[in-house]
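Entry 12.
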Amino acid sequence: MKVLDQIKNYADILRLTKLKNEPEVVLHQAQIDKPSYQEFALLLLQREVQHRRKTDLERRLKLARLPKDHNLDKYDFNMANGMSVPQLKQLRELLWLEQNYNLILMGPSGTGKTYVAAGLVNDAVKSGHKAYFITMEELVTVLKMKEMTSTALNTYNRLLKAHLVAIDDIMLFPIKKHEAVAFFNLINHLHEQTSVIITTNKSPQQWAEMLDDEVLATALLDRLLFKCEVVKLTGKSYRMENRKTIFEQ
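Predicted 3D structure (tokens):
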């Protein structure tokens, strides 16, 4: 067996993916740079660590299930929705996450609630946290199916172990009593150990109507609002203001 093949084989056994896939590149660069033995060993380890961090971040971002638009670096402050530059900057520092605070983003459709929630999940993942984005509709399906499918159960277990869970469009549609109870049980489990971001176009007072259970709604709000910042977004829909058309202007 050639030396290069042996390197690939041993790298595979040791799970040194970068070295396994690119030994020629590493050796060619070493022939040019002529590093010392110590420098060459350090280079190999640095490449592997960087590769693993990159693939781990890509894996966690995929698991976060973010919507297409979620980069808060591109946030449009020209949109008059009540979100200020200092306010968003403070949210992006994630100190509230480290203190297990919740966020409720409340406002009409199109005012940036989902964009901000997804962007904060993106920031949290890149900061090393376990963070996930899920719509209320998707969550209800997970709660119903977790006893029946491994996919739903795995998703549910990830939520239980998360540092941050963003739930989009809560109370957009009425939910059945057993679904509401399952949702309460999840929130009760996450209470004070996981930060939760809620986006909703309904006021807390309207939650009881959507759940058709004032006691359950009160208990749910009691846990969410205990350590919580409520951010009210206002204004017209960003999507309608920037609506695309197929016709020439």
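Annotation: Residues 86 and 110 are 21 Å apart (CA to CA). The chain has two domains: 3-64, 72-241.
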